[in-house]
Design brief:
The chain is α+β, with helices and mostly antiparallel strands. It has 3 domains: 71 residues, 2,3-Dihydroxybiphenyl 1,2-Dioxygenase, domain 1, CATH 3.10.180.10; 72 residues, Signal recognition particle alu RNA binding heterodimer, srp9/1 (2-Layer Sandwich); 51 residues. Helix content is 23%, strand content 35%. A 4-stranded mixed sheet has the order 1-4-3-2, with helices on one face. A 4-stranded mixed sheet has the order 5-8-7-6, with helices on one face. Strands 9-10 form a two-stranded antiparallel sheet. A hairpin with a 5-residue loop joins strand 7 and strand 8. The termini are far apart.
């Protein structure tokens, strides 16, 4: 059956591209062959652990102004490539330590956890770990997502007698604990109005019968 063999990624220089993709993203160098009659190299890479028949990235050195202008803009500002992982926390930490620039922080989505990073030319990539429920999109994904990406639910309520009730609930992950801080701040700011409302209600009650 037909399948994608290579995907061309336009680069400025072979070696600087390899330093990033192999050195920082830990891609595997599949082939680096000189093509003297065309004054170029045939350079292909693939993600670490990918099977031998997996699609490779062909690093193509730009030739001419038109191709040079396309460096880093093959996705026209959108996410261009999607790098799936079986351990988001591991690879996110490794990429960050290697100096990879993330332009969107980790976020839990219905399909999994994802963050957006840029390569050395500005192309945008998704680093993504899929949920088991979306295994049809990527059969190699595990059944669970790293604990750092597991949503947690926080609930809080304040009662003033039987008349005033304030209840709040928020679902967050350990990556988004600031939301809980916002929830607590909102509750604390609402206490004075609740107390005043309760006091006014109490003063309007009729006196008890003699």
């Amino acid at each position: 059956m037909p399948h994608l063999s290579h995907l061309t990624l336009i680069v400025r220089d072979y070696d600087e591209a390899l330093a990033f993709y192999v050195g920082k993203l830990r891609f595997t160098l599949v082939e680096d062959t000189l093509v003297p009659e065309q004054a170029k190299r045939w350079v292909t890479i693939r993600p670490p652990g990918a099977p031998g028949q997996a699609t490779t990235l062909l690093l193509a050195r730009a030739a001419g102004p038109e191709q040079t202008a396309a460096i880093g803009r093959q996705g026209a500002g959108r996410v261009f490539l999607f790098l799936a992982t079986d351990d988001f926390a591991r690879d996110h930490a490794a990429f960050t330590a290697a100096g990879v620039r993330f332009v969107r922080p980790p976020a839990v989505q219905p399909y999994g956890i994802v963050a957006v990073f840029e390569d050395l030319y500005g192309n945008r990539w998704d680093l993504i770990q899929y949920r088991a429920t979306t295994a049809s999109r990527s059969r190699a994904m595990p059944d669970t997502i790293h604990p750092l990406a597991t949503p947690q639910t926080a609930r809080a309520s304040i009662r003033a007698g039987d008349r005033v009730v304030l209840e709040s609930e928020v679902s967050v992950t350990p990556l988004g604990l600031l939301a809980i801080g916002g929830l607590v701040a909102a509750i604390l700011l609402s206490v004075p109005p609740i107390v005043r409302a309760s006091s006014r209600a109490a003063t309007k009650l009729p006196p008890p019968p003699a």
